[in-house]
Design goal:
Blueprint: E1 13-17, H1 24-31, E2 42-43, E3 46-47, H2 53-59, E4 60-63, H3 75-80, H4 95-108, H5 123-136, E5 141-145, H6 153-168, E6 172-176, H7 180-186, E7 189-194, E8 197-202, H8 204-207, H9 210-217, E9 221-225, E10 232-236
Parallel strand pairs: 1-6, 1-7, 4-5, 5-6
Antiparallel strand pairs: 2-3, 7-8, 9-10
Helix pairs in contact: 4-5
Length: about 240
């Protein structure tokens, strides 16, 4: 990866888009400090490697594309792990920790199956459980790798409404989005990655253009404006005939 310069400010949702293999997940891991980056990653102006790991966990929450956890752990136990960076010396949860975890499950839409083991959940239910764990961290920055995967249309809309609410509360959100139409409708800014570099960055209308999409994805996709919002819609070229 080279020539990449991305900033996420409080109160905004930035979408990482691009074809498979463009480097989206790699970049997300580097920004989280989990992968060595040749350049510099700064968190609130400080080089991320200089930030204590526990403090980093209080500031950044990561939802990976394929998160792992023991299949026997319950959703409630998983979400409670999000409070670990905030626990005191004795590592005992307070009433507030429990309240934050419960509120996080409710907000992520998984309170109804809070006592179920992860191994019994559908892909979409698991996704909501890991989002709830991230919420329980109460971070300043959310990094999410395709959080809408395995979710139906209604659940996707609910998820992005949640992310919009987090941004409105002052958090920064960086999210990898596979679907360009969803990204254009849900994000304030986009960064289009192609072959390990940023092909375009800016407002959705500036990034999701026929020229940019053709260069990144090839000639078999079509871009046209939504009839009411004017935001770009991207579909396979054959479907536009």
């Amino acid at each position: 990866m080279q020539g990449i310069d991305i900033e996420v400010a409080p109160g905004e949702i930035v979408g990482l888009v691009g074809p498979n293999g463009a480097g989206k997940s790699t970049l997300l891991r580097a920004l989280a400090g989990a992968r060595h980056a040749e350049g510099e990653v700064r968190l609130l102006g400080t080089p991320i490697e200089a930030v204590d790991r526990r403090e980093r966990a209080r500031l950044i929450a990561v939802v990976e594309q394929l998160p792992e956890a023991p299949p026997t752990i319950s959703v409630r136990e998983l979400v409670a792990l999000g409070r670990f960076p905030h626990l005191g010396l004795l590592r005992r949860q307070s009433r507030r920790d429990e309240e934050v975890a419960t509120a996080s499950m409710r907000r992520a839409g998984c309170e109804a199956f809070a006592e179920r083991p992860l191994g019994t959940l559908s892909g979409g239910e698991r996704r909501r459980a890991f989002v709830a764990r991230a919420l329980a961290q109460e971070p300043r920055l959310f990094l999410l790798d395709e959080p809408s995967a395995h979710l139906d249309a209604e659940a996707q809309a609910t998820l992005f409404a949640l992310l919009r609410g987090l941004a409105a509360e002052g958090a920064g959100v960086l999210v990898v989005v596979h679907d360009l139409t969803t990204a254009a409708a849900s994000c304030d800014r986009l960064a289009l990655l192609h072959r390990g570099r940023v092909l375009a960055t800016g407002a959705p209308r500036e990034v999701v253009t026929p020229a940019h999409v053709r260069e990144a994805y090839g000639p078999h996709v079509t871009v046209f404006p939504h009839p009411t919002s004017g935001l770009p819609i991207v579909i396979p070229a054959a479907a536009a005939r």
